[in-house]
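=== RUN LOG ===
request id: a7f3
mode: sequence -> structure
chains: 1
length: 295
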Amino acid sequence: MRLFHFLKMVAETALAKLDLAIHINPRKQGGLYLVDYLDCQIDICDKLSFFPKQNDIEIVCNNPNVPTNEDNFVYKAAILLKEMVGRDNLRAKIVLKKQIPVKAGFGGGSSDGAAALRGLCRLWNIKLSKGQIRTIAKSLGKDFFYSYYGGLAEVSSQGKNYSLKRIDALLPQFWLVVLVPKRQKPSTGWIYQHLKAEKLGKNAQKMKILKKAILAGDGEQILANLHNDFEDAGFQFFPQIDKMKRDLEVLGAKRSIMAGAGLSVVGFFDKKTEADQAQKKLALKYQQAVSAQIR
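=== RESULT ===
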C-alpha cells in the first residue's frame, strides 16, 4: 500500500442496488442466515465530491434525514480506511448529494460508503488489496461489498464473509417504476428477526432458473423467477407492499418485487410509455414514484 501527494478534488457516483433474487437458507452459521443474492444496479444515484481538508472528516449532505456523523456509511468507510493504513492525519470534506431513497431497500447508504472508499483512495492515493476490501466489508456489510464492485453479479453471504461472482450477460431492457411508501421500514435487523424459518429456502430452483434465463436473455423467464424471501415478512406487517404491487400491475407492470428488505416496490414494464404513465399516475399517491432503468 502506498501513499502519494493529494489530488485537489475527486468525484464518485453511488448507484442504487436492486436485488433480482434474495434466497435465504433457513440454516444459520454463527447465528446468521446464509443468503444468496442476484444483484444489479439501476440508474438512480447519489453524487459524492471529495476535497482535501486540514481538520477532521466532514460530511455535507443535501438531505436533512441523512446523518452526517459516525452513523453515516461514508464516515464509517473513511474511519476504517484511515485505520487500515494507520494514518490518523488523513482528512477530507465530503459533499453528498442524495437521490437514492433513504431506508427503502436500495442499499443507498452502503453504496455511498463504497463510493466513499473508492473516492478517498483516489484523494489520498491509497491502493487497497482485495483482502483489505474484504476486511472493511466485514464491518460495513454485504451491500457495501457488492456496491464496491457493482454490475450484474451473484453475491453469497456466509456470516460476514462475502463472495461475488460476476455474470457475463446483459439483462433485457426493462423500464422500471420505483414506488417508495410514506412509511419507512424498521431496521433490516428487525426484518430478519421476523422471518419465519418454515417459509425460507423454497426458492433455490427459482434462483437456478433465473441465472439460466439471464444468460439466455429470456426476459419472460427472468420476470417469472424474480424472488425475494423478505417479502413474506413484509406482507405480514406492512400491507402497503401488496397495495403497491397491485397498483403497479393494474397499470401494466409485468412483474413487481419488493426492494431488498423493503419497503419500496419495483415494477417491471415492457414499454417506456407504460412506465411513464404509471409513474405520473402514482407520483401523488406515494412518497416517491421514480422511473428508472437497469444499468
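=== NOTES ===
The longest helix spans residues 108-123.
Confidence is low (pLDDT under 50) at residues 1-6.
=== END ===
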